[in-house]
Specification:
Blueprint (H helix, E strand, L loop, with lengths): L9 H37 L4 H30 L19
Length: 99
Amino acid sequence: MTRKQALDDPQIAATAWRRFRRIMAWMALVGAGCVAVALAALHIWSGPMPIHMIIATTLGVWLTFMLGTGLMALVFLSSGTGHDAQVMDRLKDEVDFHD
């Protein structure tokens, strides 16, 4: 019987997803800090802001930060568990890099 690899093994998957959630939780706090810095900079630069601008800035900065963080965390999750090593390159024999 072959040993399960990467995220196919429930124990490895549980550890990896726990680490992913921990990273995302910390980064959500850092994202909130980025929102605070952005709002403070806008307040210093332009003075008092309407509530709609505050809401839009908060959502825009935080969601953009979390999207980037989530994608990078998934890259680290995939690489750290060996999932990337399991990918088969079906085109490696068809592509000639010596042109």
